[in-house]
Every structure is written in C-alpha cells, then in structure tokens.
Structures
1.
Amino acid sequence: MAMSANPLLKDLAESINANVAALTTQLSKLDHAEPTFSNDGAPDYPQDPEVQRSRMAVASAALDLYHLSLGPSLFLRTQSFAAKFDTMVLEVLNEFKVFDAVPLDGSTSYSDIATMSNRIFAEKEPNSGRVIHTATSAAARSPRLQAWIGHNLNDMGKACAHMVDSLRIFGDGDGEPGRTAVALSMFPGRDPNYGFYSFLEDDDQGGEKGWRMKRFGEAMSFVPSGEGLEFKYILDGLDWGAFGEGVIVDVGGSIGHVSVAVASKFPSIKCIVQDFAALEPRFKESLPANMGDRVTFQAHDFFNEQPVKGANAYLFKHIFHNWSDKYRIRILRNIIPAMKKESSIVIVDTVVPPRGVVITVEERLVLGMDIQMAVAFNAKERSGQEWATLVKQADERLVVKNITMPPDGVFGVVEVGFQ
Ligand SMILES: C[S@@+](CC[C@H](N)C(=O)[O-])C[C@H]1O[C@@H](n2cnc3c(N)ncnc32)[C@H](O)[C@@H]1O
C-alpha cells in the first residue's frame, strides 16, 4: 500500500499493522525467527527482497508515527535535546569497549536507538524545486524554540563530540566544570573551575558580547512549555500562598520567567531574580509592564554569601543539577547565613525515579538530562534520597520537608528547611 504524502496517525498505524503482518508471515515462511530485544535474537534479517520491503515500510511508518505522535514542538525539542546523545553514547560504548566488557549472559541498560528526523520542510509539489513549511518547520519559527535548538545543538551538540576525549583526558574531572567535554570543545586550556557559565559570561565569539548567554536564557524560558515541566507544577507543588506578602529570591533565575509565573499567580508575593548582570537587559525586556515593582533583578554570584536576608524562600530551579557535589554544598552554605528559622530552600529539579517506573519517553528525558549534566558540568541528576543526603552534608540542621512530583513526571519540587 503506497503511503500518502501527508499521512495521518491512523494511516500510519494501519500501514504498520499491514506490513508487520506481511513481515512476520515472510519470516515464518523462511523459517527465520522474529526480531527481539533479547540477547539471543538474530542480528540480521534474512536477505530477501520482500522482507526488506516490508520491514523498511514498517520502519518508515514508525518514524513518522513517532514524529506525529510527539507533535511538532515536542519533536523538535526531543530531536535537538536527546538525539545527539544516541550517537555520543554509542561512540563512548564503542571507544571504551563496553560491548566486549558486558558478558553475553549479563545485563545491560543501553537500549535506545537514535532516529533520524525528516519532514522538517516539504517540497511544494514533486520535482517543483520549491520548499514549503510543514507543521514542524513552522513550529521552529518560535524564537524560544530556536534558542532551545541552538543551545542544545550548537553548544551541547559540539561538546558531545568531545566526550570520549574528555573521559580519556579527565576521567570524572574531579567534579570540575572546566574538566569537561564542553570545556574541550569551547574553552580548552582554562582553569579547572572555569566552566560553561564563566564562558557564557565572557564569550564574544560569533556575535555581540553576551549573545550566547542571552540565547541560553531564552532556551531556559522555553523549558516550561514541555509536558511535565509546566509552571503549574511549580505553582501547585508548594503552598506559595502561605508566604503571604513574603519575599522569594529566585537564585540563578535567568531572565525571570519563573518569578513572573509565581508573582502572576500570587499577587502579594515579591520576587527578586538573581543572576549574572549580563542578563538584566533581557530580564527588563521580557518583564510584563505591571510587574516592575514586584519582580526585580539583582546581579549576584551564588558562590558569594546571599545578600537578601530573611526571605521566605530561596528558590533554586534547575541550578543544583549543573554542579558536582562539592559546588552544590558551597552554593547551599552561602544561603544558610541569610535564612531565618522558617525560611525555605525550594529546589525545583529532577528527582530521578527508580528505573522502569516512568514511561520510556520520560525515562529518556531523565537519562538525557543526566548525560547533558556530565557533558557540560561533570554533574548529575539526583534521586529523592540523594537530595536528602546532599542538604544534610551542607548543614546538619537542614532536612527535606516535602517532595511533590507531577503525575508521571520527573521534575519535582523539593522543600528544604531547618529541622
Ligand atoms: C539551568 S539555568 C536555570 C535558569 C532558571 N532558574 C530556570 O530554571 O529556568 C542555570 C542558571 O544559573 C545561572 N548561574 C550560573 N552560575 C551562576 C552564578 N555563579 N551565580 C548566579 N547565577 C548563576 C545561569 O546564568 C543560569 O541562568
């Protein structure tokens, strides 16, 4: 059955059904076992033109079905974020002979295979030589999505190509941000503690100074448009209303998107966004006009003591996962002198679930985040238990009071306070 040029979900599912039925019949006639993920499965299909035709039809329709079922934005988000890890991980496994190191009757956790994307743009008519948008290329006109793709492919994608060299030269890099694949690719030869963020602050390569940091800020502000990452989970994950006319310090708050969401829902709360001074102009541009007196910006380096004393909450969204333990502890200890007895430290970050608990797409996201943290920072994602251990290591008096997770999601709100 010829596939239409613009298939729908149902057409693809029907094509997969029909071609899988043909394929299994052909295999059975040739007395060849069906493919399987188990380690005694045949490595190849039989060389038979009919089998070849059927299985390519299944694979092509499955690729399109995957694309359409994610939808344009999530497809682009996933391609730019996760696809690069497939080839990087394959290279790491190959270079370090992991295939030989795992015994055939042992176990392995590596299962995801990269998929190449297409249907970004289409030809107007066959042989017309004119290109038109598809829904996917049209979705990529969003500046925030472009920033996300740019950061993931241009910053992190290039770094992935240096992962093998980084592991050979630095090993785990002693948790230093300047002993990473990102360092080899973007700023080789700098001090061990000179990391991606130092580079963003200094960078003037390929554009006006600060363009790369601004792009990173835009990319971060795109994150909450993803399923399970929406602001509502941060807003519902904590009793923000209990802070009344309180003050929230959004540490490493980038261009202020999280604070704006909190201040919009809780009109009596005031937020102070702290980040590099270079982000202030973009913060000002994106701040809604009616928020000027409630969401303000303060240049602050979180490796110095927290200057805002006695805030109700010190919010760290996607901050700690960028740092190895020794740095995380330093960041936390810089908050403690500023805290009053009832202040909270609110961590919004990945809370790694046990393997197999969340659906594959979510699990792939956690693995991708974990790998991206290693590539860029020599850091990693943490489980609930690891968060509890970390805060205790920073200060014996600190405890995790509550963890709220979105349904089927992996990004939690971890509330920490004095015992
Ligand atoms: C992964 S982003 C998270 C941004 C924002 N909290 C969010 O979740 O969208 C990490 C942020 O930490 C900021 N950052 C990195 N090092 C910092 C430092 N030493 N002091 C203050 N901010 C820093 C970066 O500029 C960036 O905005």
Note: The longest helix spans residues 72-95.
2.
Amino acid sequence: MTCILLFCATSLATQNQRIPTTKKFREAPKFYNAPHCPRILDDDTTSNKENICLSSSDKIVHVAMTLDSAYIRGSLAAILSVLQHTSCPQNVFFHFVASASASSSLLRTTIAGSFPYLNFRIYPFRDSAMAGLISTSIRSALDCPLNYARSYLADLLPQCVHRVVYLDSDLVLVDDIAKLAATPLGGDKVLAAPEYCTANFTSYFTPTFWSNPSLSVTFANRKACYFNTGVMVIDLNRWRAGDYTRKIEEWMDLQKRMRIYELGSLPPFLLVFAGKIAPVDHRWNQHGLGGDNFRGLCRDLHPGPVSLLHWSGKGKPWARLDANRPCPLDALWAPYDLLKPPFSFDS
Ligand SMILES: *[C@@H]1O[C@H](CO)[C@@H](O)[C@H](O)[C@H]1NC(C)=O
C-alpha cells in the first residue's frame, strides 16, 4: 500500500515540479445562462448551491471529476472549457472527488479562487481503502487510487443525482457538455462512451486471461470494443441497482491473484461493460493526445469533428508547454490554462 502511494507521489513530482498554490491561478470570468435556460441553480446563496437535491436535479448537468494537487491545473482548464462552451453554465454542477488525505480546504480555495460562482461539492475518497485492491501497472501514474474513484461515483454522489458525466482532468471541451449529458441511454444501458472497434481488444488482457476459458467466456456473445474511461455518461440509478462497483471490485480482486491485464482502472471497466454500452460520437473523446504510455510521442487528431480534446497517455500539455517542448495540438489546450505567468506580481 505504501508502495502504491509512493509511486503516485514520485510520478507527480516528476510531472509537476512546482506545487501549485491558490495564488498561482487566475480568476475566470463569470459565465451566465442564455435566456432559454431553465433557472435552477443561479441563486448565489451557498446553501442553495449545497442542497442540489432540493433543486430539480434532472435539469442540472452533473459533472464528476477527480481533484488533486498534481492535476489541478488540468482540472481548472477542463472546468473553464466546460463553462465557456455550454449555453447554460449556471446549470452545471461539479462533483469533485478528492483523496481523503488531501487538503480539501486548499483544493476548495483553489477552485473557488478561479471560479467564485461555480456550483460544486468536494467528496472525500478514502483511497487507503482502495490501495489494497490495486495491483501495479505499466505506468505508475495509473496506479493512483484516485484513478479508481470513477468506479465509486454511484456511492459517493447523492442519491438524487441520477446521471453524471465523468471527465478526466487532462481534457478540454470545445462544445456544449449538455449535448453529451443528453446522450440516450436506451434500454438498460448503464453507461455511454465512444467505442473504438478497430482497436485490438485482445491486447488489453494478458494471455493468462485469454487462455483461461472460464475467464475469456466473459466476452462470449458480446461485441466487445475498447472504450476510453476518461469520458463517460453514467446512469447512476442503473449503476446502483446493478451494483456495478462490486462487479468492478471483483475483477480487481482477481487481478491481485492472477495477472489478467496490464493497465490500471480501464480493464475492469472493459470486463464489466465492453459490448454493453451506448455509443457516443467519437467527436466527444479525441483521446490519445498525450502520446503513448512509454515515450509520450506527439499524436494527431482522429479524423472527423472535434467536441472534446483528451490528452490521455503519458504526456500532458501543461508539462510539455512548461518544458518548451509542446506538441502542435498543445496549443489548443493553452487558451484554457489559468496558471498565472511566472513572475507576475499581481495578487
Ligand atoms: C492483437 O493483440 C494480440 C496480443 O497483443 C496479438 O497477439 C495479435 O496479433 C494482435 N492482432 C492484430 C490483428 O494486430
């Protein structure tokens, strides 16, 4: 357990030499609803912001993200991009999951410092309980317990939240999140995400998995395709009813005993959901812009329109920009960067 947490800290230290503090980030402008938007959360009183269950929660766009000091710069950029491109920014509610051992007051001041009008709540995630379930993967940053928080949203978020859009911290939207949130989850689908059926699905699991018929039968009669878990629309009611958190944990538990996959939090999602998800247009997750997991080479966009740019993979745009070695597409992230330039003297 100590090892895993140490891995995280190490990878964070190399990615983020400077520990961000509140003063380092600019304040974003206030964003206002368009006239057609239903008025739900635009009362500025704190109590109203906190009591989302009193509001007509289903008209709110609920967004879940994780929050930690290493990725906070990415998170702030993602939040800004959401607000800037939605026509009803005051109807978006952010649910931030942070490690229970992190300073939630520092995270809270940082968020509120850049977004004084934001509707949000921070949920402590007991990642020490998580550590026992995590086995090490090929990229140490993937082993951070907070990476697994997306499997616990149904437990963490209030019961009155029926649907949530989960977003990673290394992405920006350039389109209205309300469109993504409105993705039809017909029938009995629990989650929606863009599927990539040309990706080699076999490669996400080990030969140990495929050669064991009692395991590989999992994907029998399923048109299983890879999907990226960094952008998902989740029906929390169906998730709760089907107890999917426990199903994911069961696979993680098995992984501890026999190595059935190499990556971190993704394969358990594939095991439980691949071939059973509602499709989302690929424009909503132009992923892989961080490059591969080994060298972080520059990647190009996939063909087609773009609603969301995702720097999944090893390289992060802020780190490459700081190092003066940006990839061409990192220029599309830079406009959302709220970090104050170095040596700026304004408070
Ligand atoms: C898919 O990946 C597996 C395992 O990595 C490999 O053995 C197989 O040749 C690959 N198939 C294709 C079509 O590339």
Note: DSSP finds 13 helices and eleven strands in the chain.
